[in-house]
Amino acid sequence: MDMTGRAAIVTGAAGSIGFAGAEALAAMGADLLLVDIDAAGLDRAKAALAGHNTRIESIVADCSRTAEVQSYVAAAQDAFGRIDAFFNNAGVPGKLAPAHEYDEDEFDRIIAINLKSMFLGLRHVLPVMVAAGRGAVVNTGSIASERGLAGAIAYNTSKHGVIGLTRTAASDVGALGVRVNAVMPGVIDTPLLENMLVKMFDGDIAAGKAALGKNATLDRIATPSEVGDVVAFLLSDAASFVNGAAWAVDGGALSTIKH
User: Of 80, 87, 155, 247, which is the active-site residue?
Assistant: First the structure.
C-alpha cells in the first residue's frame, strides 16, 4: 500500500472523513491536493498534515461548480504533473423534514453539493486518468445509499445517486485502467454528529452515541480514521481487482437496521 510518488486529490478535505482519508494517504506517501469551500478549515487540515514526508497543497473550491472543479483538476496537474487517486468526498447532510414537507430549494441545494459535485469530479478527473491509463477513484456514499432514512429525502436521494454514478463510471473506464469504487459510512464520531446529538438527546452526547451505536452489530459508532483507512486501501494497488463496488463501513448496520 505504498503510494510514494503518487498524487491524490481529496475534496471535502476540511471535514472529518475527508481529512481522515487525506491523512491515511499522506501516511502512505502520497502527495495531496486538498480541496474544500472552507478556507480556514483547509488551512487547519494542511497544517495538521505537515508532519508527513510528502507534499501537501490546497485550493478553495465549490465542488458543485464546473469552473471551480476544472480549477482544482488543473491545480493538481500543475503541482504534481499527474493524478493517480481521487477521493471524491465533498458533501453535506442537509436539513431534516418529512418528504411531503421538504423545501424545494433545500432539495436542489443538497443534490447540487452531494451528487452534481460527484459527477463533476468524475467528469473532469477521469479524462486525466484515462489519458494516463491508470488511476483510482473513491466516491463517498452513505448507509443512506441503501436505506430510506426518515426525514432526509434530499440526502438519501443524493447518496443513492452516488452509487449509480460509481457503478456506471466503473463500467465506463475499468477496461481503460481506471477503477471507481464507493464507501458507505455509517454513523461516524464527528463534531457534526455531536452537534446533532445535543439537540436529539437533550445535551447527553455520550447517551446519543451509545444509542446510535446499537444500530451496528459492533455496538458502537466509528471513528473517521476507520473510514479513511478503507478509502486509502481502495485507492491503492492493494485493491487492484476491486471495481464498481460500494463498501459499507458501518459496523454491520446495513445488515440489521430497518430504516
Answer: 155
